[in-house]
Amino acid sequence: MKEAMRTLLLSSPLADLSVRIRSGPARGMKWTLFPFSQYWRLGGDADVVAAAEFLPEIRESVFWDFGAHFGIHTIAMALKIGAAGQVASFEPDAFSFRKLSRHVRLNRLENVKLFNAAVSNRSGSGGMIFTGTGASTQHFVYPDDKDKPTDEAMFAVQVIRVDDLVAAKEIRPPDFIKVDVEGHGASALEGSLQTISQHKPLILMSSHSTEETKGTRQLLEPLGYSVLSLMNERLSWRDLTFTTRLLRAA
């Protein structure tokens, strides 16, 4: 009964009813009623905007949102950086992308570019685990057939190499990147490595496995990156796994 009611609400016009975000970095901005009402009631976590305070200048900066979901961080950072800045947001799930797009339109954010794609180390097509319409971020990208699970429902998504977007001047090089892509972070960063090596952006990363941490370290440590807490305390690379940490170049 509970799941049936949830499905009904998701398809109802009530789901897209406009409300105001009550607290957090995006307070006062417009959102939609359902699902994940905690976004507009509680404002989401403040880690991204807190980490952005380490930037020399937030205004007019460029923010890449890898794994944007419904866009709570996209909205908050678009507000912080102002009209001269740029947000590039990437979300492969169709339902989440529709919500993300609606939230950007509701707030008339002309400094945001949206991509219905998963960030990876190549461009093309890939697969994601299906966890149910309107689900949270529990999706894992498997762009290569050899990695595709055999016991999970899958759906096709576009995958994109972000270095290609920069080379084509579709987006600007970043000052700050948020990476929360459910285990695919090392591949996402690999596809951005040319730009990262040139511009050394601040990175806020959520790692979901030891392998994701290992791959990230192999890519970024040679570029002078180390792991820090949001209190600017130096940590070890193992402290990145199963949590959210700041990655910053010396």
Overview of the structural elements:
Helices cover about 30% and strands about 25% of the residues. The chain has about 250 residues and is an alpha/beta fold. It has a single domain (about 45-250), classed as 3-Layer(aba) Sandwich (Rossmann fold), CATH 3.40.50. The strands form 3 sheets. Strands 5-4-3-10-11-14-12-13 form an 8-stranded mixed β-sheet. It has a 4-stranded mixed β-sheet with strand order 6-9-7-8. β4 (about 85-90), α5 and β5 form a beta-alpha-beta unit. The longest helix has 13 residues, at about 95-105. The radius of gyration is 18 Å and the shape is globular. The N and C termini lie far apart (about 55 Å).
Write out key terms for the chains shown:
globular; 9 helices; 4-stranded mixed β-sheet; Rossmann fold; 8-stranded mixed β-sheet; alpha/beta
Q: Nutshell version of this structure?
A:
The protein is an alpha/beta fold and 250 residues long.
Write down the overall geometry.
globular
Largest sheet: 8 strands, mixed
Task: Quote the CATH topology.
Answer: Rossmann fold
Mean pLDDT: 89
Looking at the overall shape, the CATH architecture is: 3-Layer(aba) Sandwich
CATH homology-level superfamily: Vaccinia Virus protein VP39
Low-confidence stretches: 141-146
- What structural category characterises the helix and strand content? alpha/beta
Helix content: 25-40%
Number of strands: 14
- Radius of gyration (CA) equals 18 Å
